[in-house]
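just leaving the lab so this will be short. below you get a single protein, a line of residues and a line of whole numbers that encode the local backbone shape. id like you to explain what the token line says about the fold, in plain words if possible. thanks a lot i owe you, the record is right below:

…
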Amino acid sequence: MKSFLMAAALALGVGVATLPAPAVQAAGEKPTPANQSWSFDGFFGTWDYASLQRGFQVYKEVCSSCHAMHLVSYRHLEMIGFSAEEVAAIADDYWVTDGPDEWGDLYEREALPTDRFASPFPNEQAARAANAGAYPVDLSVIAQARKYGPDYLYAFLQGFRDVPPEGIELRIGQYYNYYYGGAIGMPNMLWPDGIVYADGTEATVAQQAWDVTNFMMWTAEPHLQTRKQAGLGVMIFLIVLTAFLYAVKRKLWADVH
């Protein structure tokens, strides 16, 4: 689900940062989100699979009512630790349009693990009609489509305010987000204990924002960890090769000296 609030410190026991009260913001100003300590950061970064699975639950129960992920298939969920049986059961909850059949007509059928995530709307016009003219963006690569990446997503999801600052007026169907820097058609969707995590984790707003940001970072770059592991293998190979070539060089030039 990278179209997110400032964090003071990463609390490892909870898995998310706590957020201070924002400073006064001028109309139209977009503050810079704080840098977070994501598990996937750095050369040796890895995915937090428990967080990824919780993030999918947030997307499924909260975000997917408006936002699609057209680049992700249900079978990809096996990459974050779901079994083939669990993936099949997840896909079975959805219907997708298929066809044409032998008569040239499209038809509805139950989704299969090989299908892409089902869209909440049949087309863009229907999506806009259901959201007061606003078009909910596809979240497949949103974590890398915005400046500051996952830090912005995490901050944005916690940046909604009931009262906008002076100079910003909201029309009907608009909401104010501190990190967006103005009016937006998306309302606040995360609430304390708004969902019940399958693993028993307390569903604070910060935790939900943290987990779904992790999930959306994974959908944007699902092979990130594999790429880093491959890079590490290449570096080790080059180090060994360099040592070998140095030893050969010393052997060949030993008689010269």
